Amino acid sequence: MLAINGGKPIIKDRNEAKFNWPVVDKEVEDAVLKQLHKTTSIYDRSGVIKEFEDDFKNYHDVEFGLLTNSGTNALYSIFVGADLKEGDEVICPVYTFFATISPIFFTGATPVLCEAQADGNIDPKKIEELITPKTKAVMITHMWGIPCDMDKLVGICKKYDLKLFEDCSHAHGATYKGKLLGTFGDAAAWSLQGPKIITGGEGGIMLTKDRDIYYRALLLGHYNKRCRQEIPDDYSLRKYATTGMGLKLRSHPLAVAMMQVYFSRIDKIHLGKKHTADKFNEAFGKLKGLRIPLMAEGSSPSWYGYVIQYVPEELGELSIEKFVEALHAEGLIEVDLPDSTGPLNELPLFQDPSDLFPSYRGKLSYKSEDFPVAKKFYKNAIKLPVWFTEEDSVVVDNYIKGFEKVIKEHKSLL
Ligand SMILES: *Cc1c(COP(=O)(O)O)cnc(C)c1O
Asked: Tell me: the pLDDT tens digits for 282-320?
C-alpha cells in the first residue's frame, strides 16, 4: 500500500533521503582556514584568485578568466563587456533562471525571448525568425546541464555575425561532441553559488576569448589595482583604470579557497553523476508516465539536476502535484517541482519592466501564453538531485523503487 494511503514508506529516515551539497569535509575546512590566515581581501590578480582563474581557464583552454562575487555578476560582466547598449537586441532563452537575462536591463539593450525545444533548451530554428538588423548576440543556457544544440547555434551565430554567450551555471564540466561547454562562444559565465556543482557559497566566473570583453569587464567591477595591473597602457580605456566604471564585483578569497577544492574533483564528480543518471535513465525509461531527458547527439551533460517529464495522460490524468505528494510520502523528499526556474514571460519584469526601468516603456510586452513549448516543459518537469559518490547508491536505488511503487499503484490515488 502507498505510504500516502497509510502503507509503509520506502525510505523511513529523512537523513537517508537527502542530497547534501556542498559537503564541507576536512579538505574544505583546511583550505578555508589556510586562506583565512593568509588574506581575506585581494586587490589585484594574485594569490588564490589568480590560481583559480588560471586553473579554470586552462581547464577550458580559454584565454581570459575573471572571478566575480556571483554568477549574476559574471553574466552582467559579459553584457557590459560586450558593450551592449540601447537599440541592441539579444536573443535569449525564455526558459532559464531569470538572472541569465535580467542584468541586460542595466545596459539598455532589449532581451528578445525565444521559445524552447522539447529538451528544454533554446530552439535554434526559432532563433533565426527573431533576428533583425538590431540583433547583436545570442544568449543560451545549458538547462539542468544538458548541452544546447551547439552545431546549430554556432552555425547561426557565424552566419549572421552574432556574438554567442553561454550561461553554464548548471553545466560545470559538461561537454558536447567532446568539447567543454563554455568554450563555444565569445564568452561564458558560471555561477559558483550554494547548490552549484562547483561552489564557494557565493561566487561566479566569466571566461572569454575576447580581450575587449575582458578589459571592459575588469573596468566594470575591478577598479584600481587590478585594472592598472592588467589593462595595457596603449588600450583606449586605460585612462579609466583607477576608477573603472565604479562598481566592485570582486570575489571573496575564502569562497575561492572553497571552490578550489571542489574544482579539483570535477572529473570525479562528473563520472559519478553520469553513473547515477545512467541508472535513472535505465529504470525510468521503462516506466509509464515518465519521459527521460532528451539531448542532442554527442552530449555529455553535467547532471546538475535530473529533470524528467511527467505524462499524466499515461497515469489516468493523475495530477503532478498529487504524484509528487505520494513520492514525498514514500520518503523521497528531494523530488522537486522546480518552480523558481520557469518561463520568463510569466514574470512581471519581462511582461513590463518599465516601473523599474523607465527607458523600457513599451519595449517588452510578453504574455503568459506566448511560449507553449516552454510552458509545457516547465509544467511537467520533475527534478531529482544527482548523487555521485559510491555510498549514494543505496539512496539512488531507493528513489527508483519509490517511483516504481507509486506508478504501479497510481490507481489508488485517482
Ligand atoms: C544560479 C544561476 C544563476 C545566478 O547565479 P548566482 O551565483 O546565484 O548569482 C544564473 N543562471 C543560472 C542558470 C543559474 O542556475
From this structure: 999 999 999 999 999 999 999 999 999 999 999 999 999
Best of 169, 199, 258 to mutate for ligand 1, by most ligand atoms within 8 A of CB? 169
Residues 229 and 331 in one domain: no
Instruction: Please tell me whether residues 92 and 192 are part of one structural domain.
Output: yes
Name the average pLDDT for the chain: 97
Helix (H) or strand (E) holding 92: strand 89-93
Beta partners for 383?
A: 307, 336
CA of 394 to the centre of ligand 1 (A): 30
- Choose the final residue of a domain: 216, 244, 264: 264
What is the per-residue pLDDT for 261?
A: 98
Residue 339 pLDDT > 90, yes or no?
A: no
Question: Are residues 384 and 338 part of one domain?
Answer: yes
- The answer to whether the CB of 76 falls within 8 A of the CB of 82 is no
* pTM beyond 0.85: yes
Q: Whose CA is nearest to atom 1 of ligand 1?
A: 191
Of 68, 78, 96, 100, the one to substitute when testing ligand 1's pocket (max ligand atoms within 8 A of C-beta) is 100
The CATH number covering residue 363 comes to 3.90.1150.10
Domain of residue 249, CATH code: 3.40.640.10
Interacting residues of 92 by C-beta distance below 8 A, sequence separation 6+: 100, 101, 104, 111, 112, 113, 114, 122, 138, 139, 344
Task: Cell numbers for 99, please give them.
Answer: 538572472
Q: What would the pLDDT profile of 117-149 be if each residue is shown by its tens digit? A: 999 999 999 999 999 999 999 999 999 999 999
- Quickly count: other Cβ atoms within 10 Å of residue 59's Cβ: 17
Per cent of the chain over pLDDT 70 is 100
204 lines ligand 1 (CB under 6 A): yes
- Which residues have a Cβ under 8 Å from the Cβ of 124 and sit 6 or more positions away? 117, 149, 152, 153, 156
Burial class (CB in 10 A: 0-12, 13-18, 19+), 179: middle
In degrees rounded to 5, what are phi and psi of residue 66?
Answer: -140, 115
What domain range includes position 333? 3-22+266-413
